[in-house]
Automatic annotation (TrEMBL):
The keyword Nucleotide-binding does not apply. InterPro entries: DHS-like_NAD/FAD-binding_dom, ETF_a/b_N, ETF_a/FixB, ETF_alpha_N, ETF_asu_C, ETF_asu_C_CS, Rossmann-like_a/b/a_fold. The keyword Electron transport applies. Residues 5-195 form the Electron transfer flavoprotein alpha/beta-subunit N-terminal domain. Keywords: Electron transport, FAD, Flavoprotein, Transport. This is Electron transfer flavoprotein subunit alpha/FixB family protein. It comes from the Bacteria. Belongs to the ETF alpha-subunit/FixB family.
């Protein structure tokens, strides 16, 4: 009865991103007992295939080519479409990441399929697969079903829990040759602006700063706190516009959307555009000297005080807890 579902695995620094495993979990629900096939694209990536099986994929299809070493919508779409033609899946799942947001509309258009993007929950009710996605900058949610043809969805990172890793699982790994040709874009070099560390869009803990930090120097306080918590640093648009940090850290309607287990907003007033990028975080802690700041309306915990006093003390106490743990 079940469906065959194709899941695109995603890499960062030649390691599988968590969203790849979360997409497999979503695919399992969509498959309803059918086969989940993971697709792995890149250059020399076959060694990573087994991990996808351990997280729930029944089979892995690998396409290797030096032209797939760096992401390009031209190259990746050619590879995906070739595998879709060969596998003929009834559903496709991508992560709702920078790559997924760029690639999925192109592939959906070529396949003449609808696309349900930014899915935060998948359930099966009354014989239908129901997808929940946020609308109006996260102020409301809508439920969608695909009534006809191919099911094609992208899942938001950190929302659908990955299945538990089972190292005893085995599955078939096959290589497919796809001729990647006529690339209109060639990536010569990738220059990283963000520091190495936890990926902001997948972090379980995010420490974000706003204009209240007053300078790039102020953001160093957040780096220390994030390091203690094993989290990532983010920022409001105001802080980015003021030159305190790089735009790659921006969270909000025109930046990244994050849904960590813990979100600490430091010196952020809580403009509606910022809330659109973080309001679905599981626990929100706000630190601000203005008791009327909008951020406190959605915070689970609030500290009214000078962030330059509060953050160092908080970091110090957390360090002590870690030592005693």
């Amino acid at each position: 009865m079940g469906r065959k579902v194709l899941v695109l695995a995603e890499l960062k620094d030649n390691k599988l991103r968590n969203v790849s495993f979360e997409a497999i979990a979503a695919a399992k629900t969509i498959a309803e007992g059918g086969e989940v096939v993971s697709l792995l694209l890149g250059e020399s990536v076959e060694s990573l295939a087994n991990e996808l099986v351990q997280y729930g994929a029944d089979r892995v299809v690998v396409v290797e080519d030096e032209k797939l070493a760096q992401y390009s919508s031209d190259g990746f779409s050619q590879a995906v479409l070739a595998v879709v033609e060969e596998e003929d899946p009834e559903a496709i799942v991508f992560g709702h990441t920078a790559l997924g947001k760029d690639l999925s509309p192109k592939v959906a258009s070529k396949l003449d399929a609808g696309l349900v993007s930014d899915v935060v929950d998948v359930e099966v009710t009354g014989g239908n697969v129901v997808f929940t996605r946020p609308i109006y900058s996260g102020k409301a949610f809508e439920k969608k079903i695909v009534t006809d043809g191919l099911i094609f969805v992208t899942v938001r990172p950190n929302n659908i829990p990955a299945l538990e890793k089972d190292e005893s699982r085995t599955g078939d790994v096959s290589k497919v040759d796809v001729e990647i040709k006529d690339l209109r874009t060639i990536i010569k070099e990738v220059v990283k602006k963000t520091s190495e560390g936890v990926d902001l869009s997948e972090a379980k803990v995010v420490v974000a700063g706003g204009r209240g930090l007053k300078s790039a120097e102020g953001f160093k306080l957040l780096d220390e706190l994030a390091e203690v918590l094993g989290g990532a640093v983010g920022a409001s648009r105001g802080a980015c516009d003021a030159g305190y940090c790089d735009y790659s850290l921006q969270i909000g309607q025109t930046g990244k959307v994050v849904t960590p287990d813990l979100y600490i907003a430091v010196g952020i007033s809580g403009a509606i555009q910022h809330l659109a990028g973080m309001s679905n975080s599981k626990v929100i802690v706000a630190i601000n000297k203005d008791p009327e700041a909008n951020i406190f309306k959605i915070a689970d915990y609030g500290i009214v005080g000078d962030l330059f006093e509060v953050v160092p003390k908080l970091t110090e106490e957390l360090k002590k807890l870690k030592v005693n743990a």
